[in-house]
Amino acid sequence: MRTIRRIHVLGLATTTALALFAATPGAVAEQEPLPGFTPDRSTEQRELEKLFRESIDPAQAKQLSTTLASKPQLVGTEGARESADYSVDKLREWGLDAKLDSYSVYASTPRDISVRMTAPQQRELSVKEAPYPSHEEHYDDLVVGYNAYSPAGDVAGEVVYANYGLPDDYAKLEELGVDVTDKIVLVRYGESFRGVKSKVAEEHGAKGVLIYSDPADDGFGQGPVYPEGPWRPADSIQRGSVQYIFNYPGDPLTPGEPSVPGTDRLDPEEAGNLPQVPTTPISYGAAEPLLRALDGPEAPKEWQGGLDFPYQVGPGGTEAELNLDIDYEQTPVNNVVAEIPGSTKPEEKIVIGAHYDGWTFGAADNTSGWVSTMQIGYGLAKLLEQGWQPERTIVLAGWDGEEYGLLGSTEYAEQYADDLLDGAVAYLNMDGTGGKNFSADAVPALDDTLRSVTKDVADPNHGTVYDNWVANSDGAQPEPGRLGSGSDYTAFLDHLGIASAAAGFSTPGGEYHSTIDDLQMMSKFLDPGYIGHAQAAQVTGMVGLRLAQSDVLQLGYASYAESVQGYLDDVADRGLNVTGAKQVAARWQEATERLESRRDQLTNSGGEQAEFDRVSAAVLAQERALTSERGLPGRDWYRHQVYAPGEYTGYAVQELPGVNGALDDGDTATARKYLALLTGVLNDAAKAADRGTR
């Protein structure tokens, strides 16, 4: 029989946490044993999780947020470094071994940004919001509205309105007889990642891109604007990166390698993720005169926005000039890293991370996620004080430079790739936790763990976080979304093949990447009381604890294999013969069902330690098996063959990206090659599952 190492964690008390967060929905003794735990260990685990939950206090979240979000925290600035140093000091104060991991990354810095309307009138357009009283102390430190990694340039010409700036929009312009060659295109934020808008404009010969937030999307068309409400006011500018992260994220000059001394670097003109068309954002207040003066055909009905006149597409009537003085230089990127070594399986790691950098004050994006991550650190530190130690290693990470292109997390994953490939169990991301509505995205292997944990975390308005999730879902059982890109899980999942999840809370609003992403917005509209911050820390912290403590890893791949068969059915609908791939996917599902049955037998009835380890190793191997060093067509940094961002979907996931991406391009021959590659990785996953039951 397997010997169970019992850890007693007793006597931890809390006087600051709200009673809500000390409560456990349902009596512990009456709850079902946790998957992956023996009955005795399951009871211990629930006691451990209760103690952890009791240490998480919304008042602490508010205090941490007030300190961190009181100043801008853009990568490479003094504010970002101050936040990193404060975080390290605080984690050390709580008893954790925290440090900075630093990189030198090629990045852009705006020197002078100007946008002028030159016809039918001369008019300087604002490129920075007016200050609110609470912003005045740090107003000069706030970056102007600009898009990171845009090339510098001075361009002038006629303006054409291109809706959201996606391929179908340009096809519609062509139908209308409008050519954007050598024009400045004016496009709306939304529907896809802003870098896709720059890429598509480049493909169609535009000389410049202006991106604005239409009031119909996140301004007065949605409700009262800030400071009376949470929606975007007329002068608010959405900043953001236009780096082509769909090719690869991170340092443009070191794809696949860390930006540390000794790494060979590309010349900038060789980099594959830098846009070529000058691109910059403006507010809808600045866009209004440009749109109002446009001649040409009237825009289609679905292109009309929230301003009080009919939108026309041009050209004619409106001309503009962009002057973008942007420097490129090596920029410091400082990750905050704290590691809690595992007691029995230190080589196996659960990484919990959030970026702390922000475009402005970043109270929501992403001081909230980093504060929740720090609170997980506090909760774990309180357990350590009582003599507890995790079975597996837990790493807490505060990423720098996420807003520019997932810089810190990508460089970390590339630097420690061998170590992570050997033993990383999962990566848990926290990007946006300050809100009232729960949501989660994950690979299918983590779906059941997320559902289980959320049933054990209280919610003031819904009973439990699970009930909150149901209330914000379409069905009776909430289904996590699937991960593409756009946050720090990208390198872990898409490049290395590490099972990943991202969970948090949000409230509808228009603060994204603007100066109104501040403490007043957070405390008045988004997360009054900082309840969401604390709940997110409890949910993700408990997921991490279950993965760190389980007797057998409880990642579930039977439902994963079933999902892949559904994706193959969709490919078949596009005209490709998937019979062989479906047979292999079905065989993988059968193998995982046997593996999960064996896991349950072990946890219910016991067994030798070697059997527990063999099953866990088989579980761990499956996500890695779904990757190929061949990568995706034209995008070899992306190795995962089931999930990745599409070239034109932006952040959104594209299932079976090698196959579907080639079909999107009309390249049936390449689609067939990647279907064969997919069949091979599915077969590898099935073999990995089989090794756990031999």
Automatic annotation (TrEMBL):
Domain PA: 155-243
Gene3D superfamilies, alphabetized: 3.50.30.30, Transferrin receptor-like, dimerisation domain (1.20.930.40), Zn peptidases (3.40.630.10)
Domain of life of the source: Bacteria
Coiled coil: none
Residue span, Peptidase M28 domain: 335-523
Keywords from the named record: Signal
Cross-referenced SUPFAM superfamilies: PA domain (SSF52025), Transferrin receptor-like dimerisation domain (SSF47672), Zn-dependent exopeptidases (SSF53187)
Keyword Signal: yes
Protein name: N-acetylated-alpha-linked acidic dipeptidase
Provenance organism: Tamaricihabitans halophyticus
